[in-house]
Amino acid sequence: MSNDLQLNAVLNNVAFEVFQELAFIFPAEGERDHDPACERTTSAVIFEGAHAGGIILALPTQMLCALASNMLGLDETAPPTPEQQVDALKELANVLCGNLLPAIYGPEAEYRVHSPLILASAPADAHVGYLCRRTGAAQAANAKINLELGMVELTLCVGQPDRMAKVG
Question: Is CB count within 10 Å lower at the N or C end of the chain?
């Protein structure tokens, strides 16, 4: 198995695990087509240390309410606020990053994980370009996760620590 395929597989496995355990959102039965017209909300987490880079997590905006409700344990009579929905997405991206790095590089590697960001609405490749420029990294892995509430996209960008652009 090539390194790219291995990274994609690890990204997929970690994402499925985090979505199931943290957000109680499970894999979909059968295949789901990616709808490019679907409004998406995107979060990014930048890391530095043994490697520099970041992850981008994009999911259908319509998934945010269920994501936050599940993570916060809210019932249908108390829907989450828009702030809670954004915070849930940022926390999910943070946990994904925190689980992904040791899965790829081992538990001994140390990283500084920056606070998650919400990225402005733009095509996925614009987000990847932004993250790669900001971190001095290159796109390393992609995953399209087929969940019961929609298709989630993940991108991992990785570079060397000496190439890390100034993060502010």
Answer: C
pTM of the predicted structure, to 2 decimals: 0.88
Q: What angle do CA 69, 73, 74 make, to 5 degrees?
A: 55
Please identify which residue in the block is written with the tokens 């998650």: 116
Going by C-beta distance under 8 Å and a sequence separation of 6 or more, which residues neighbour residue 85?
Answer: 64, 65, 67, 68
Residues 111-159 pLDDT 10s: 999 999 998 776 667 788 888 888 888 888 999 999 999 999 999 999 8
Q: Which of 21, 10, 166, 31 is nearest to 92 (CA)?
A: 21
CATH superfamily, domain 3-163, is CheC-like (3.40.1550.10)
